Amino acid sequence: MSRQYNFSAGPAALPEDVLRQAQAEMLEWSGAHASVMEISHRGKEFIALAEAAECDLRELLDVPSGYKVLFLQGGATQHFAQIPLNFARREQSVDYVLTGDWSEKAAKEAKPLAKVRIAASSAATNYDRIPPRVEWDLDRDAAYLHITPNETIRGVEFHEIPDAGGVPLIGDVSSTILSRPLDVSRYAMLYAGAQKNIGPSGLVVAIVRDDLLERCPKDIPKILSYAEHAAQGSMLNTPNTWGWYLAGLVFKWVKAQGGVAAMAERNRAKAELLYGYIDASGWYRNPVEKSARSWMNVPFTLPREELDAPFLKESEQAGLLALKGHRAVGGMRASIYNAMPLEGVQALVDFMKDFARRNG
Ligand code: PMP
Question: Which atom of ligand 1 is nearest to the CA of 10?
Fold first, then answer.
């Protein structure tokens, strides 16, 4: 067995207990005499699994009534386009707050479908902060306001949900969902690609308020309509059954850990350990304003670029995987999602200390 601490930004490490259970059930799942991947999504066994997963997620996030929970496909990226298609008319404005690469992409995908307004942006400071709420230029008549509560590439996170000024708030929570409690009632819609804190890629979880669903136009293809997916219980066509199954196991695992409040405590401790060391080192550097630092994705640079290659090579030899930063930022990035234990972050800090001592 040579599994190592995996700091990949996504697809990311999954809880080992979940992988073991999936392994044990791979050939025959729960009395079905077949793998969960080999049975009908419309059979009663799979329906029960699907309902349990939804129920567990609702419980974990305390989803209020009046919201649909959907298990969809297409990656978060497809939903960048599907959101304006469903919730805005072409001539209507939609507000985006740009805090990094993912919110930028979301706004770009919306452009052909609605009048995109940039309500605020921290591009001028290289996405190192959340633009202060008082400086946002919101349109009261916008169809919605879109934010990215955690920017996976730059490691910038909203630690408070901003006041949307009465406009429906939509959040791409791909890289923060389940890492801490989340007040769903403040949002009209949340969506997340699964491959960080939920399960394998290829699954998207969306939580959508009923009044927003009523806006979905009748004249768009059904497969792109959130209202149709909701009406069909996310089974308009064959869903990603394997992803749904694994998501269900992850939800049970999070519950067994004590839920999102317990995850938050653990994630806070992990983040404090790593940022604390980076700041104290005077050698490594994280460029993000302290109040906006992500608990999930921690980018950092070394004092000289020529140290990057040896750092990556030696960290891998030390059993610390996938620390290379995103090409847009350079340097390193440690993604420390729910499945990363505190011991993994401690092992990273120990390695960083040793590397700095040898190369300082
Ligand atoms: N939004 C965020 C915040 C992300 O981190 C990612 C992927 N890393 C995406 C959207 C795009 O997700 P996908 O590749 O599933 O389309």
Answer: 8
